[in-house]
Amino acid sequence: MSTTHKPGAHGAQKDGDNTTGHEWDGIRELNTPLPTWWLYVFYATIAFALVWVLLYPAFPGTGWNGLLGRTARTDIAEQLAADRAQNEPVLARLRGMTPAAIIADPELRDFALAGGRVAFGNNCAGCHGAGGQGAPGFPSLADDEWLWGGKLADIQHSIEHGIRAPDDENTRMNQMPRFLADGMLTQAQVNDVAEHVLSLSGRAGNAVAAGRGAAVFAENCAACHGEQGQGNQEMGAPALNDAIWLYGGDKAAVVRSVSFSRAGVMPAWATRLDPATIRMLVVYLHALGGTQE
Q1: Is 221 marked as binding a ligand?
Q2: Number of separate helices (H) and strands (E) present in the chain
Q3: What pLDDT does 7 receive?
Q4: CA nearest to 217, candidates 182, 241, 246, 249
Q5: Which of 45, 74, 136, 280 is 20 to 30 A off residue 263, Cα-Cα?
């Protein structure tokens, strides 16, 4: 029994017309050509792809940049060069001025604040936070407490030469002793001095231990941190009598600091950033935190 195809809603062809040669249970598969317009569009996309391959980079790792020689990298490089050329007159002025002189000029101050914000986001926010709020081990730059001083000259020196930067002979340098690790104090003395440190901000849990720790503190810690734990910016010694803690202010963190010391490192940016960028950062940070004249 043969099956014939009758014209229907889809314009089916009758029996005997062009087929693929396939037949299942008496049903033959017709070979209906694609619409001409669709084929033309398909061929056009192939032609477009071939032209694109010739004009633009299309073979990763071969160095082929296309007949036009245009890449996103070159486009961005040209745009950056154009931006630098446009800003160069202002940047040249910044290089020849002190941060104080920049702040005194309203136009330059606004430019420096905007540029410093961008430079901070690109180079500093990864450690100090997008708003300069800091993180454990990375000091906040948005308050009025400064480890090494918050004057313009202090900030500039810290940025240019870093903190304990191994590649800069003028870097900020200090080193807290490892009192327990090096056998300078016993575990009991470390516990007592930690209680005393906590007592400086009214948080001691053991008044008797804090009392014993006062003598240990006076003998071993006061020379850097001050008799009242007020800190010493000339030495980079943080204040211990407030609620600001670089590595945590609970007892375990204090014991850890006393026992094994801390030694964070900040890069020296003088060889990494343009002098104009450093001055913009100084102006921005000076405005971001509590200002010191």
Answers
A1: yes
A2: 11, 2
A3: 46
A4: 241
A5: 280
Backbone angles phi, psi at 121, to 5 degrees: -60, -35
**The tokens of 248 are what?**
């945590």
Q: Flag whether 10 is marked binding.
A: no
β-pair partners for 30 = 19
**And the tokens for 243?**
């609620």
22 labelled binding-site residue: no
Structure confidence at residue 210 (pLDDT): 95
Contacts of 231 (CB under 8 A, 6+ apart): 225, 237, 238, 239, 240
Identity of residue 138: F
Q: Is 97 annotated as a binding residue?
A: no
SS (HEC) of 96-163 = CCCHHHHHHCHHHHHHHHHHHHHHHHHHCHHHHCCCCCCECCECCCCCCCCCCCCCHHHHHHHHHHCE
Spans of the chain below 50 pLDDT: 1-13, 15
How confident is the prediction for the chain on average, in pLDDT? 90
Q: What confidence tens digit (pLDDT) does each residue in 154-176 have?
A: 999 999 999 999 999 999 999 99
What CATH class has 187-260? mainly alpha
- Of 117, 284, 263, 88, the C-alpha closest to 176 is 263
Residue 176 assigned to a binding site: yes
What dotted CATH number matches 73-171+266-288? 1.10.760.10
In the chain, the amino acid numbered 204 is: A
Q: What is the pTM of this model?
A: 0.74
Q: Contact 194/258 with Cβ under 8 angstroms?
A: yes
